[in-house]
Amino acid sequence: QVQLVESGGGFVQAGGSLRLSCAASEHTFRTSAMGWFRQAPGKDREFVASISVSGGSTDYVDSVKGRFTISRDHAKNLVYLQMSSLKPEYTAVYYCAGRETDYWYRIYTAEREYEYWGQGTQVTVST
Question: Is the predicted pLDDT of residue 1 greater than 80, yes or no?
Answer without folding.
Answer: no
